[in-house]
User: Which sequence fits this backbone?
């Protein structure tokens, strides 16, 4: 097996060793600078205030949950969970599908329909069990308690955690592969737009991604030590499980690796396993005690996991989005929110086992696709608001082929990264290939990609034509697929959604509407209504230079005279009075005799 270090010029390795601290400081400064640019471009915009207007999203609930904890409700004795529109619709469908469900769930006739729907979801989520794992909301609550109930306090430590993530990627690649691979991984981590933008959202996805990378670092550290290191590792495993239960995959991967590769006496092996399990139990103990006190199942840390599981596996499910169909409500009605029974019933909703397996395999495949499937937050809207995200090149389509090279030449030494990758892939299969769910996999690929980049450079330097040609051929085929539009949702479908959202938001949330319409324009240029409305909103927002090209395109496409007047206003703001006067004359000549109406009216035309 070829060593990454073997193909690294010794001079570079010696240089990096002599300037180890300077290299690390440079990487951290670069990471901080990128985050400063992101904050400056997003500050004052709508995307960092999603909890205030997106009442159906997770960030709104995390905000409310954090405030509740900050106000002193540490135990959450009463059942408490969101009741979104889709949740009410599913509960209503389940009650209609299964007439006996109301009786089985003790939903008396005195309850109103909304009360029945909420009681049903409370039953499915196991009463007073936490809605989701409590780690993140309690961190949000602690932040609100210390600094006030504003998300920017949470964003601050998430951004710092992101800088720490660059250090972890650099340190792990350096430890596992070589100093040069560590530098390459650090640079790639600085240049990765995902999970960067999650650091300024009130969601746990950035935390989950960086905790996974941190656990990989701790596993690499613990592997060379004794029992006390394994006790620390166990505590870290347990604490991570309170952030997301998929982290319970990590001790299984670590145990499997030790059994397969580490030769120690059975007594010592059992002792290390015992102290690690004790550490896990110690970290979980506060949550277990809380569950016992409030009457929730002792080991249930995510009440929504079981009833939500079937929605991603029924015949109506899609690999790249949360798709609600009648089969989901029917499954919940028949299984009463039981996870195993629900998954089996969801599989039976398919016409064949092949259909079910095809869905799950598509999820795995789309982990490597360029499309950032939105859920609660949208990468493409963030990219419209923060151009720095468009400038950063280390996206999935770059990381996957480089990581494949790194894995091919340093498979055995990559073992700490297997845990976040396997846990992330498992999470995607259990749910969907959404951008936020695959973020932990993307982060775990960075150290491997650093090793792959060094290996590839070594091949080129040594003029190894065969592996370079093989890599180029496979990468070309992969990129051709990964950069293509997914079949569902199609490009046209996505453009239509952004267009509809933008027009609906235009009068109440102008800045947010602008982002939606700009993304609709990117996906489907030439829509006169979109161009006219974007121009109007940008002009109203004090950006005549950005508004003018859209208004010009709308006028050239035959927009109404009112749009010509908007264009004239943009020209006046840019001190182009002669052109503005000509535009006013053209608008006046084109307006029908006796026509009236607001100056900014934009007709619905395509």
Assistant:
């Amino acid at each position: 097996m070829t060593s990454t270090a073997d193909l690294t010029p010794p001079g570079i390795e010696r240089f990096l060793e002599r300037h180890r601290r300077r290299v690390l400081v440079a990487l951290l400064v670069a990471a901080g600078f990128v985050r400063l640019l992101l904050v400056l471009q997003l500050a004052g915009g709508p995307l960092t205030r999603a909890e205030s207007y997106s009442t159906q999203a997770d960030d709104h609930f995390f905000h409310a949950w954090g405030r509740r904890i900050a106000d002193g409700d540490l135990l959450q004795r009463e059942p408490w969970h969101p009741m979104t529109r889709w949740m009410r619709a599913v509960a209503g469908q389940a009650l209609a599908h299964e007439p006996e469900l109301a009786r089985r769930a003790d939903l008396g006739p005195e309850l109103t329909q909304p009360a029945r729907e909420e009681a049903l979801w409370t039953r499915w989520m196991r009463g007073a069990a936490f809605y989701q794992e409590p780690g993140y909301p309690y961190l949000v609550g602690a932040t609100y308690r210390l600094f006030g109930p504003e998300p920017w306090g949470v964003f601050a430590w998430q951004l710092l955690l992101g800088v720490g993530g660059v250090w972890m990627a650099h340190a792990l690649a350096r430890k596992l592969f070589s100093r040069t691979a560590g530098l390459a991984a650090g640079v790639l981590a600085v240049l990765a737009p995902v999970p960067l933008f999650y650091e300024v959202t009130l969601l746990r996805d950035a935390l989950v991604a960086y905790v996974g990378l941190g656990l990989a670092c701790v596993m690499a550290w613990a592997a060379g030590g004794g029992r006390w290191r394994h006790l620390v590792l166990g505590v870290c495993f347990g604490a991570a499980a309170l952030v997301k239960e998929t982290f319970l995959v990590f001790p299984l991967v670590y145990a499997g690796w030790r059994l397969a590769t580490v030769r120690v006496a059975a007594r010592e092996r059992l002792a290390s396993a015992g102290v690690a399990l004790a550490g896990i139990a110690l970290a979980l103990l506060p949550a277990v005690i809380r569950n016992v006190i409030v009457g929730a199942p002792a080991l249930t840390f995510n009440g929504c996991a079981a009833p939500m599981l079937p929605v991603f596996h029924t015949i109506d499910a899609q690999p790249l989005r949360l798709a609600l169909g009648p089969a989901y409500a029917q499954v919940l009605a028949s299984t009463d929110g039981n996870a195993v029974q629900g998954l089996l019933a969801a599989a039976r909703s398919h016409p064949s086992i092949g259909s079910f397996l095809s869905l799950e395999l598509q999820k795995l495949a789309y982990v490597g696709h360029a499309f950032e499937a939105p859920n609660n937050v949208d990468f493409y809207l963030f990219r419209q608001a923060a151009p720095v995200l468009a400038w950063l090149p280390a996206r999935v389509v770059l990381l996957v082929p480089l990581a494949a090279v790194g894995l091919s030449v340093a498979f055995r030494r990559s073992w700490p990264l297997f845990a976040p990758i396997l846990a992330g892939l498992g999470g995607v299969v259990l749910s969907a290939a959404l951008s936020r769910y695959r973020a932990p996999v993307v982060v775990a690929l960075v150290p491997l990609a650093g090793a792959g980049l060094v290996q590839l450079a070594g091949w080129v330097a040594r003029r190894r034509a065969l592996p370079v040609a093989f890599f180029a051929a496979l990468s070309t085929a992969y990129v051709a697929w990964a950069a293509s539009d997914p079949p569902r949702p199609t490009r046209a479908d996505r453009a239509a959604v952004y267009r509809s959202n933008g027009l609906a938001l235009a009068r109440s949330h102008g800045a947010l509407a602008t982002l939606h319409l700009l993304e609709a324009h990117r996906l489907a240029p030439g829509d006169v209504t979109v161009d006219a409305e974007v121009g109007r909103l940008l002009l109203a927002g004090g950006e005549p230079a950005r508004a003018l090209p859209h208004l010009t395109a709308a006028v050239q496409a035959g927009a109404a005279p009112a749009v010509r007047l908007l264009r004239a206003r943009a020209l006046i703001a840019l001190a182009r009075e002669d052109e503005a006067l000509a535009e006013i004359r053209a608008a006046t000549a084109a307006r029908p005799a006796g026509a009236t109406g607001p100056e900014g009216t934009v007709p619905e035309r395509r």
Summary: The chain has 30 helices and no strands.
